[in-house]
Structure formats: structure tokens, C-alpha cells
Amino acid sequence: ANIGLDLLFILGFKMGVEGAAYATLIAQGISVVLCIIYIIKKHKFLIPSKSDFRFNFKLAGDMYATGVSMGLMISLVGIGTVIMQGAINIFGTDIIVAHTTARKISEIFMLPISVFGAASATFSSQNYGAGRIDRVKEGVKKATLITWGWSVIVIAATWLFTPFFAHLITGISDPEIVGTVEKYMKINTAFYFILGIVIVFRNALQGVGDKITPIASSIIELLGKFAVAMILAPRMGYFGIMISEPLVWAGMAVMLGIGFAANKTFRKENIPNTAEQM
């Protein structure tokens, strides 16, 4: 719906940015209506009743703490991105174009990994609440393996089709810019195996209530990007930018691995009483 309305409002009605905004709002409105209809027809237990509107201080505290943890983590990632962009801007127009193109391609390839991370958070929290620690562990293991399988596909696609992707997304055909995009993608995607660990572990830890380790990993990400901007980029040029994310991911993976090993939840067996209550 969003794509179709974009084409209608921007190309058909010549509404420009305003048309894109209307298209997004209408598409989201359609999504909300469809979700409500589906809930009414298939999952009526999700419809709140009067008895649900009771304030639970402990539950509210847990939700606020989790929300602040996730919000702070996202904020740290955003700040790191701004710092990195500042470091990239010193290299001139061609590098900026190449980097922007590479990031667009990379974000598309990263999307399935992010989705499995979100699924890990949901799956881990549900089974943690049900006392099924074995399923939490199994879910983390399988989600990680799936992201590794996707990484193999991405690496192959990167080596074979990066020039095609670059032209398809941004229309560029300059050999020097495309060559920079290829180099960035080959370095970046080779470390998607580590990225898979980072995304799955971080979300799984949040799912079982660990609020500290994911934030600590985001702080490592922020400090790493700051170090790149201040140290690697001035000394190594754009190559320092290319290796920055893999280095940051490696540091985050170590932190999350330590947090995973130290988390008492993953050293427990099932909790039958909790599962029976659920």
C-alpha cells in the first residue's frame, strides 16, 4: 500500500514530499485497521476488559526499566552513527556517495538479521516467563545459526552482484565509486557472522530481563565509533571507516558473550512451577 500510494501521490498527483507523508500515514492506518480486525476475529483475548485496567507498580517498574534500557541503547547507536558520518564527510563527495550507497545495500542485507534479533527477544521473553529455559537456549542457538546461513548468502551476493545493486539503488556507474562500494561491502559482510551473534544475543538478553549488558555493548559501540572518528579515519583514511564496524562488532560480541555466560538465567534448568502457572 505504501509503495502504491507513493507512486500515486508523488508521480500521479505531483505532491512531492507531502504526498510521501500522506502515503505513509494512510498505509499505516490501513495496517492498524487490519490488525484490529484480525485480533477481533482470531485473538479476542487480546482485547482489554475493565479488569485489565489495574495499575501494577512492579509490572510498570519493570516495563519502564526495560523501555529506558532499550531507548538508551538505540540512542547510543544513533549518536555513534552521527559521529561516524562526521568522520566520513571529510573525505569528499565521491567517498560520501560510495559510503551512502554501500550503507543502503548493507541495511537491506542486515534487515533479516535484525528481524531474527527481534524474534529472539520475543521468543526468549515468552519462554522465560513460561519457565522454559531450555527453549530460550535453543531459540538463541537456532536464531544464531539462521543468521549465519543468511550471512553466507549475503557474502556470495556481495562478491557477485554489488555493482548491480549499487546501480539499481542509486543509479551510480562511476567505476571508482562502484569500486569503493565493492571494497566496503566485501569487508563489511565478511563479518556478518559476528553481527548475527551481536544482534541475537543482545535481544535475547533483553528478553530475559538483562538491562545492563545490552547497554554496555552499546557503550562499546559508541566508544568504538568515536575512536574511529578520532584515530583510525585521520590515520588510515576511508579504509579505517571500512574496518570500523567489524572491529566494533567484535568488541560488542565479546561483551555480550561474557554477559551471556554470566547471566544466571542461562545456567538454570526449566522452572516447572512458573510454566504451569503460564
What percentage of amino acids are in beta strands?
Answer: under 5%
Q: Tell me the structural class.
A: mainly alpha
Give helix and strand order, one letter per element, not per position: HHHHHHHHHHH
What composes the largest sheet?
A: none
- Please count the helical segments: 11
Helix content: over 70%
Termini gap: 38 Å
The total strand number stands at 0
Mean pLDDT: 88
Radius of gyration: 22 Å
Shape: globular
Number of domains: 2
Unreliable stretches (pLDDT < 50, length at least 5) are 273-278
Question: Which secondary structure elements does this structure contain, and how are they paired or packed?
Answer:
Layout: H1 2-12, H2 16-42, H3 57-88, H4 93-129, H5 133-170, H6 175-189, H7 192-207, H8 212-236, H9 238-242, H10 244-262, H11 272-277
Question: What features would you describe in this structure?
Answer:
With 278 residues, the chain is mainly α. The chain has eleven helices and no strands. It has helices at residues 2-12, 16-42, 57-88, 93-129, 133-170, 175-189, 192-207, 212-236, 238-242, 244-262, 272-277. The protein is globular. The two termini are 38 Å apart.
Question: What's the short story on this structure?
Answer:
The protein is mainly α and 278 residues long.
Task: List the defining traits of the structure above.
2 domains; 0% strand; 278 residues; disordered C terminus; mainly alpha; 11 helices
